[in-house]
TrEMBL record:
Main location: cytoplasm
Homology family: In the N-terminal section; belongs to the N-acetylglucosamine-1-phosphate uridyltransferase family. In the C-terminal section; belongs to the transferase hexapeptide repeat family.
One GO term of the biological process aspect: peptidoglycan biosynthetic process
Protein name: Bifunctional UDP-N-acetylglucosamine diphosphorylase/glucosamine-1-phosphate N-acetyltransferase GlmU
One CC-aspect GO term: cytoplasm
InterPro entries, alphabetized: GlmU-like, Hexapep, Nucleotide-diphossugar_trans, Trimer_LpxA-like_sf
Co-factor requirement: Mg(2+)
A GO term for molecular function: UDP-N-acetylglucosamine diphosphorylase activity
Length: 157
């Protein structure tokens, strides 16, 4: 309700979130402070450099979550995992991997370097070697690739 009333008046065409405090107070609302120990939660993004830094901080947070839950990321800085991806224990993710939205990976699985897996289910003890997997299902104890492309609705294993 308050944010809908914030006007876009900056020269860059940006909305100034702090203007929401004034709008809230004028509407008789209570504005409160939020304290954080993590600057990444509140960093401003005003250009592509800052956007890149925000994306890197987000990627680091997602990757750390998986590593703390039993997943090995060989090179976290080059690994891109969307927030809703589920990865089983003792799985190894090699460098340059992208795991897209809706992906579920089983336990003791290896996702090989530069693989791209999107909206797919990968079973336990499976190996994906430098491949692209889109909207597909790969069962347990299966090897895919190298250089395979699984298209939507493909089922292996």
């Amino acid at each position: 309700e308050v944010l809908e009333k914030v006007k876009n008046e900056s020269a860059q065409g940006e909305y100034n979130l702090t203007a929401g405090i004034t709008v809230a107070l004028e509407a008789g609302k209570i504005a409160d402070a939020y304290r954080t120990d993590d600057f990444d939660e509140i960093m401003g993004v005003n250009d592509r450099v800052a956007l890149s830094k925000a994306e890197a901080a987000y990627r680091e947070r997602v990757n750390e979550y998986h590593m703390r839950n039993g997943v090995t990321l060989i090179d976290p800085a080059s690994t891109y995992i969307e927030a809703d991806v589920q990865i089983g224990m003792d799985t190894i993710i090699e460098p340059g991997v992208h795991l897209g939205k809706g992906t579920v990976i089983g336990e003791d699985t290896v996702i090989g370097q530069y693989s791209d897996v999107n909206n797919s289910t990968i079973g336990n003890r499976t190996t994906i070697k430098q491949s692209v997997v889109n909207d597909a299902t790969v069962g347990d104890d299966t090897t895919v690739g190298p250089f395979a492309q699984l298209r939507p609705n493909a089922h292996l294993g």
